[in-house]
């Protein structure tokens, strides 16, 4: 990527001071930009802004627009069209930079503002946010999917991301939905996977009579022991697959061990939550396809569906 131009220090307005907007505001403030205004509706958002964006005045949307040289639209994807219309109605100054943080959209959705002479960019951090200052620290290790309509917007978006410590990655307008789907599949669906795995492991620890948790560790009862067992394994697997790709696969599917997988399916089917086995089956079938497993294992997984 070519070295982008460094933008001047900007007066930044944030709509709104949720988890994403607050973290980006903190990061931009650390880079020397002036966070002058933020929109915040709920008491929690107001408190978050007061604590982490102390320089920002809490204003209604027209006030935020009026104060800003860089307007950051950090709202849910479903709310973005309405907010864009509201910004347009507030008569922003031509030349104002407006960036949204929605993963599934590029700059086409900002066309009503581009027609008013605003510089429009999409700037999505590929990171999950929990609402604490840890979010801001994680941005320094994050990539941002950036999309713009011209070289000027591209340079501005890249520079802002670099100033926050992140890595800008250009995503074509036509590929934003695919980009977002990949992130949702890898991160959001991981939550569902680990939740199921913890539930199954917790049932195994509890035992058939439900009392196993009392003696699961030498220290006695431990409500989080399932997560403690699974955590190091999952972290190692994640690091391995990111470094090695599909070759990182281990376990019964990698060994083409249909007998063990058959027992797994039976054990999971016996749990009160019968949906756990469907997730195992679907992902095992995908792993079997990726690893080139034999016919017996593939037919077992297909027959169970």
TrEMBL record:
Highest taxon of the lineage: Bacteria
InterPro entries for the chain: 6-PGluconate_DH-like_C_sf, DUF2520, NAD(P)-bd_dom_sf, OxRdtase/DH_put_Rossmann_dom, TM1727-like_C_sf
Every Putative oxidoreductase/dehydrogenase Rossmann-like domain range: 2-125
DUF2520 domain: residues covered: 143-286
Transmembrane segments: none
UniProt protein name: DUF2520 domain-containing protein
Organism of derivation: Gordonia hydrophobica
């Amino acid at each position: 990527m070519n070295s982008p131009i460094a933008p001047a220090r900007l007066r930044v307005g944030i709509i709104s001071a949720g988890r994403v907007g607050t973290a980006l505001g903190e990061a931009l403030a650390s880079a020397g930009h002036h966070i002058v205004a933020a929109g915040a509706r709920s008491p929690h958002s107001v408190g978050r802004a007061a604590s982490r964006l102390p320089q920002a005045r809490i204003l209604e949307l027209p006030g935020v627009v009026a104060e800003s040289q860089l307007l950051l639209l950090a709202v849910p994807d479903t709310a973005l069209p309405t907010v864009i219309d509201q910004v347009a109605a507030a008569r922003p100054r031509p030349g104002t930079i407006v960036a949204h943080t929605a993963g599934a959209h590029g700059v086409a959705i900002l066309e009503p503002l581009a027609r008013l002479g605003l510089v429009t960019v999409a700037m999505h951090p590929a990171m999950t946010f929990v609402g604490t200052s840890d979010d801001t620290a994680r941005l320094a290790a994050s990539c941002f999917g950036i999309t713009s309509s011209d070289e000027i917007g591209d340079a501005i978006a890249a520079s802002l991301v670099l100033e926050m410590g992140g890595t800008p990655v250009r995503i074509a307008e036509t590929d934003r939905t695919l980009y977002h789907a990949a992130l949702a599949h890898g991160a959001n669906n991981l939550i569902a996977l680990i939740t199921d795995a913890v539930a199954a492991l917790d049932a195994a620890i509890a035992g058939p009579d439900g009392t196993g948790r009392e003696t699961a560790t030498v220290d006695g009862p431990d409500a989080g022991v399932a997560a403690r067992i699974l955590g190091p394994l999952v972290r190692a697997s994640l690091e391995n697959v990111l470094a090695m790709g599909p070759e990182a696969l281990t376990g019964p599917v990698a060994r083409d061990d249909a007998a063990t997988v058959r027992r797994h399916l039976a054990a999971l089917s016996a749990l009160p939550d019968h949906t756990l086995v469907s997730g195992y089956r679907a992902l095992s079938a995908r792993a079997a396809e990726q690893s080139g497993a034999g016919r017996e294992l593939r037919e077992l997984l297909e027959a169970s569906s």
